[in-house]
Every structure is written in C-alpha cells, then in structure tokens.
Amino acid sequence: MSRNLIVTLNSGSSSLRCGVFARTGGDPEARLRLSLYDLPARMTWERKDAVTGETEVRALDPPDDPGTAQEAARAEMLRRLLDEIDEDQIAAMSHRVVHGGRDHRGPVVTDAAVLADLEALSPLAPSHQPHNLAAIRAMAERFPEVPQIACFDTAFHRTLSRNDRIFALPKALTEAGVVRYGFHGLSFENVAEALARTAPDLASGRVVVAHLGHGVSMCALKDGKSVATTMGMTALDGLPMGRRPGALDSGIVLYLIEERGMAPADLRETLYERSGLLGLSGISSEMRDLLDSDEEDAARAVDFFVYRCQREIGSLTAALGGLDALVMTGGMGEHVPEIRERICEGLGWLGVDIDAGANRNGARDLSTADARVATMAIPTDEEIVLARHADGLLRSGDAGTG
Description:
alpha/beta
C-alpha cells in the first residue's frame, strides 16, 4: 500500500491540532482537521472535513488530572485519528516545534541527537517546547517506521540582519546564542505565501503581519522575508499576550529576585502564566471575555493591548522605511472585528483606513478605496506549512522514505 498521507501535529499548552494531508505530486491537499482544545480543565473536540467543510464540535469528558492533560489529549487524538485513516498510509508526521535555536534553520527529521538539542532549549519556551517534544517522542514510539519531522517557528526569522538579531550585551553572550530568534514563524510564512499567490505586488513590498492570538507577535516583511519581529530570545518579549507581559524592563526581573525574594520558579510562573491580559485585568486571558465585561480593569487591559499594538506597528514601519500593507491573523486578528477596528483607528497617520462594514462582516480586504495602506485579515494555517515542509523532505529523500 502506498504511503501517501502526511499527518501534522501542533501541540500547544492548551490545545492539540492534527491535520491529514494527501500527497498529490503538487501542493499537499488537506483532507481532515482534528482539534482538542480548552485544556487542561476541559476537553473540546472539533472535527472538520477539509473537503466538504462539514464540522462537528462537542465537549468530551475532561482530563482526570490537569497535570497529564496533554498526554490524555494525545491518546484521545491518536485513537480518533486511527478511526479515520489507515496507519499504513502515513508517509511522515510533521510537528510544530517552537524553538530551533541556532542550529536548526529548517525542517529536520528527528532522532535522539536532534531531540536532545531541542530539549536543551525547553527553558526558553517552557509553555510549548516540552509539549512539542513529548508529541514527537510519543509518535516515534507508536510509529517507529514513520519519519517524525520537526518544523521550527524560529526558522522563518533566519533572515534578520545583525542589528535586528543582537542585543546590547557582552559579545561573549551574543556568540553563545543570546540573540533574537523570533517566533510564530510558521504563521508568518503561511501569510507571506498567501500574499505572494493573491497579491504579489503587495507581497514584494513592505508588509507588517500581526499574529494576534493567545500568543501575540508581529513581523515586518520585505519581499516576503522577515526583517524585524517583536519577540526575542524567548516568547516573552514584545506585545502583551493572554498570560505573558511582552516587553519588560529587565531591571524589573532583578528587582523581583533581589528585593522581593522571588524564586526562579515563581518568577517563571508570573511571567508565563499570571501576567498579560490576565494580570492586567484580574479577570481573564481571553480578549472576548474582556470585551464582554463591564469591569473597568477589563477595559483598561484592552486599551493597553491596543495601544501597544499601535506602537509596535509604528516601530516595524520604521524598520521597513514605510508601509504598503497591514495584515492581521490569528484568533483575534481573524475573528474579533472590534480589536481590528480599534488598532486601525490609531493608524490613520500611516494611511490605514478600514471600511467598517467590511470589517464587521469578516471580509478579507478591509481597506477603504482612499486608503494608502492595504489592510487585510488573512486566516493563518500553520498545518499546511507543516505538510509542505514534510513533503519537501520526502521528495528530496532526506526523510528516508517517499
């Protein structure tokens, strides 16, 4: 039987997404999308037939132990996946891995040495990297003959210039890898490819892409390449997020350790789990909850988020020397028109002007006829990027099969 399917796995801290793609000789074709989310307290199942568009969403029994929710989700996902496909048709499994460090600048077939390298990077992405690697190990054990391919969020930003990559730290630290890596690269890569197909004139120009999800970052693209981005060595930098603070005076970290006596574990918990929109509002890390709330702290958290987005767009525009297009993607960027509107309201000086009706109705192209900057909402699809990278390795023979 021909192995003609690529399975993608995108393991996050609160979700697990799986895609099934057929190898066709051209671009991989999506056949099925499976998701488990709302972890660890709950488990919500979504099945979408990528061919017909039919979708099923329902609640499942929650995990018995929040501490092992991801393991339970993997077992549940695998069971449901194998109800849908014949495992003997799997040519490769392609995984999102958040941090590739200095050495991994493109997709790679994993082995013990690669996994050891990536494990060492877990302290730089503690909310994601351990889940990414656990999924690879679990699938390698279950399917020992199937290549397990890692695709890195950091790889897209390998085109950053020296000035955009380094920090003003001692040279020895820079040479040891204390540099800006950037994240959300699979999402930015997908948006850049979508622009190249549908709006090549814009794609070759100066574009800011805003990935506005639970994690938030922005990327400045010139001719489809990353030239500046808001996240740094870790995913804590840049914009405020659901639970992460974004840009922070490094002296605050010293103060919390030296004057407040905060232990490293408590500091990590504060920065990764108790800050951002949740910390500002004291209510929720979800933007929809804050927009629906009558609490003043919720409104203030939203105001701060919008303001910081506007400032970062201005900074990235300066790095580009001007702006031809602004693209919003991710959960908020695709599905929360009020946030799109509020961000764009403060960018008239750049030439951003969006049509209220188009924005409200979820259109792709949001600009008014008189706008000097094209503004768009483009859905991101990290899974197709995972499938393309795996297909490329299979074609080259570097994956050891196909």
